[in-house]
Amino acid sequence: MAKQGVSTKERLINTVSQMLDGEHPQNILVEDVLTASGVARGSLYHHFGDFPALIEATLVRRFSAGVDFTNAVIADIVASSTSAAEFFERMYEMSIDTQDPERAHRRAERARELGMANSNLRFRAQLSVEQERLTNTLVEAVVSAQEKEWIRNDLDARAIAVFLQAYTLGRAVDDVAVTKVDPEAWNKLIRAVTEPLAN
């Protein structure tokens, strides 16, 4: 019997999302999802067509939630900062949070998503919408800062937005290294690399 207020589709996505907190997507089995969610096999195929589509929809949902959170933080920083110094400091603080070693699992998931998107056109079509949404929010933040003359106008806003995302994802390289970069040294490098963006 379905739980009150939660659709079958949502129960399936929520179940897979909980499993993804501790498992690689390839290790999640359809039988385990059906048992944990209490959903019949026919209902799964009715809503998603196949099991990989459920995994993909869940990964997109998880990424989308992260985009929503990040976009809200960025919008607040842009709207409430009163100077270039404050804007950069708050963006830097947000960046430090994304670089935290405790977020290694999220960076690994993101790297897997990008790998999947390169070989799975159906997943790529879904993920690209959310990726574009995140990049566009960053572009808007950069343009707003450029209009306030806080960021150099001779640099392309989209290039800056992609660069900011790239160094965060790039931290995944160190997440699997034997000898890891000291987090303070990494954050110091980020500050040194991003400071020249200021006007």
What would you say this structure looks like, in words?
- The protein starts with 7 loop residues before the first helix and ends in a 5-residue tail after the last helix.
- The model has no long low-confidence stretch (mean pLDDT 91).
- With 199 residues, it is mainly alpha-helical.
- It contains 9 helices and no strands.
- The chain has 2 domains: 1-49, Arc Repressor Mutant, subunit A, CATH 1.10.10; 58-197, Tetracycline Repressor, domain 2 (Orthogonal Bundle).
**What is the approximate shape?**
elongated
- Full CATH superfamily name of the largest domain: Tetracycline Repressor, domain 2
Number of spatially distinct domains: 2
Q: Which fold name fills CATH's third level, the topology of the largest domain?
A: Tetracycline Repressor, domain 2
**Distance from first to last alpha carbon:** 60 Å
Report the order of strands and helices.
Answer: HHHHHHHHH
CATH class of the largest domain: Mainly Alpha
Q: How many distinct beta strands?
A: 0
CATH structural architecture of the largest domain: Orthogonal Bundle
List the total number of helices. Answer: 9
User: Which percent range fits the helix content?
Assistant: over 70%
**Gyration radius, in Å:** 20 Å
Largest sheet: none
By helix and strand content, what is the structural category?
mainly alpha
